[in-house]
Amino acid sequence: MMRISLPGLWAIQNWSSVSELLVQHIWLAVVPTIVGLAIAVPLGLLLYDSPKVRSVVTVVVSAIYTIPSLALFLLIPGIIGTQILSPVNVVVALSLYSTCLLLRSVFQSLDNVPADVLDAGTAIGFSRLQRKLRIDLPLVIPVLTAGVRVVVVTNVSLVSVGAVIGIGGLGQLFTSGYQRNFPEEIMTGIILTVILAAIADRIIAVLGRALTPWRSSQGSGARPSEAAEPAANAADAVSDLVNLEA
Predict the structure, then answer these.
(1) DSSP per residue, 120-179
(2) End-to-end distance of the chain based on CA atoms, in angstroms?
């Protein structure tokens, strides 16, 4: 029978190995999120003005995201020539997932940019690049923040799947605990994964608010779900910026 004790006590007693897995888990979850963001934002801004290209890209990224994570972890080595147990496989796979999710978020964010704000930017002589950097980009931050929150929590979860191929951070506590019939180890992995996801979510939310001060001025009771309508909150602030340039 499986014996049950406090997972917290087991984690303290084995903190050296647990902390090593925790650091690995954070690295494997955060790096793909940053890579995905660095690719998705400029690519989304570049492709948004081409409706046909945007439609094709949306279909392609949706199809890629349906590939099971474990299957993708196993396919990556054959594509990029890495070893099957290399952590690079997990980073590349999750970066691909992150890019797919965030690219759709960028498109949805740009859909919410008010037409009158864009017209004002054009009227004062902004070039296409200036308009994207000084108007479009600030206005996509709230919705994009919500997308990044989803991505980082998803990555924290999917990293654990990598334990099946020996690279999974805290997920290795699941496989090891199961193989040894040791519930404390499994529960430690589950609890730390949930805590890590919650902390990552809050950090992104705080950063999102820091980057959109105009939303804070409209009240401190804003909730994450309000990020779905950022343009209405930010339009006045950006309009003021545009007017100052006139």
Answers:
(1) HHHHTT--HHHHIIIIIHHHHHHHHHHHHHHHHHHHHHHHGGGGGGT--TTHHHHHHHHH
(2) 76
The alpha carbon dihedral of 71, 72, 76, 79 has a sign of: positive
The pLDDT tens digits of the residues spanning 27-55 come to: 999 999 999 999 999 998 888 888 889 99
Q: Which string of b and e fits 132-147 if b means at least 16 CB within 10 Å?
A: beebbbbbbbbbbbbb
CATH of 7-245 among 3.30.1120.10, 3.30.479.10, 1.10.3720.10, 3.40.50.880: 1.10.3720.10
pTM of the model: 0.78
Q: How confident is the model at residue 121 (pLDDT cuts 50, 70, 90)?
A: confident
**What are the sequence ranges of the domains in the chain?**
7-245
What backbone phi and psi angles, to 5 degrees, belong to 84?
Answer: -60, -30
Residue 83 DSSP SS3: coil
Amino acid at 145: T
Contact at 8 Å (CB) between 12 and 164? no
